[in-house]
Design goal:
By secondary structure, this protein is of the alpha/beta class. Helix content is about 35%, strand content about 25%. The strands form three sheets. Strands 7-8-10-11-12-9 form a six-stranded mixed beta sheet, with helices on both faces. A five-stranded mixed beta sheet has the order 2-6-5-4-13, sandwiched between helices. A two-stranded antiparallel sheet has the order 1-3. Helix 7 (about 180-185) links the parallel strand 10 (about 165-170) and strand 11. Helix 2 (about 45-55) runs parallel beside helix 3 (about 80-90) and helix 5 crosses helix 10. Bound molecules: zinc ion (ZN). Zinc ion (ZN) binds near residues 64, 65, 176 and 221.
Length: about 250
């Protein structure tokens, strides 16, 4: 058993939480048992994940997307009430790490996703340096890279062609980071990979010559919680299990 407060403090320091300007609170969002043995990890603190954690007799849930975001009006009603109520009824702690988990150089979403493709970042770019940049040892064609991404992530990807140049410099930022595309172009990328795509990226790709690959918000953000949970398990001797609840978006 490890004290919840100790895990919270450890992750606060490890992920340098104080260094980020974020859209919601990072760390312990819902307080449960004072001691933790079993942790369930997932991308989002959805009702399905919370129910699975209850079923698994978890003492804590570790996620990338917590429950509280800027712009909410603060009322605990509807879907938010239901999620909080179930956590509290079962005395389960909710630990959530958003941008600090995207950014961490070892356990973060970007670092861990890059590792799955064999991309080792040599530089960072964009707001709060969340974007990662790597130069491939050998240039590849865009369709070849898109196939690799599809096979590794096990889902369809959408790729917007640039000017057909060989891909040597890869830029990526997990989740809903389509707004980082211009910063990736400025950083000299040949392709930018993120989770989501919006209408303007088609035109930016065509006009800048830099390709854009959207590989799913959920699919690109599974690896940070996985890596962080495995580290926590090892560091504190906890039980950790990551639940990949399917999400096509
Ligand atoms: Zn996200």
């Amino acid at each position: 058993m490890t004290r919840t407060a100790e895990i919270d403090r450890y992750l606060h320091d490890l992920l340098a939480v104080g260094q980020f300007k974020d859209y919601g609170p990072n760390g312990l969002q819902v307080q449960g048992k004072a001691e933790v043995r079993r942790v369930i990890g997932g991308v989002t603190a959805s009702l399905a994940l919370i129910d699975a954690a209850i079923e698994a007799r978890a003492d804590a849930v570790l996620v990338h997307h917590g429950l509280f975001w800027r712009g909410q009006d603060g009322r605990l009603t509807g879907w938010l009430a239901e999620r909080v109520k179930r956590l509290m009824a079962h005395d389960i702690n909710l630990l959530a790490y958003h941008l600090p988990l995207d950014a961490h150089p070892v356990y973060g979403n970007n670092a861990a996703l890059g590792a799955r493709f064999g991309w080792q970042a040599h530089a960072r770019f964009g707001e709060q340096e969340l974007g990662f940049l790597a130069d491939l040892p050998q240039a590849v064609a865009l369709p070849e890279l898109a196939t690799q991404v599809r096979e590794v992530l096990g889902r369809a990807v959408l790729s917007l062609p640039g000017d057909g140049r060989p891909v040597r410099r890869v830029a990526w930022c997990t989740g809903g980071a389509q707004s980082y595309f211009e910063a990736a172009i400025a950083a000299g990328a040949d392709v930018f990979l993120t989770g989501e795509v919006s209408e303007p990226q088609m035109h930016l790709a065509a006009e800048s010559g830099v390709a854009f690959v959207a590989a799913g918000h959920h699919a690109t953000e599974r690896d940070g919680v996985r890596a962080l949970g495995a580290h926590l398990a090892q560091h504190f001797g906890l039980d950790f299990e990551f639940l990949d609840l399917s999400n096509p978006a």
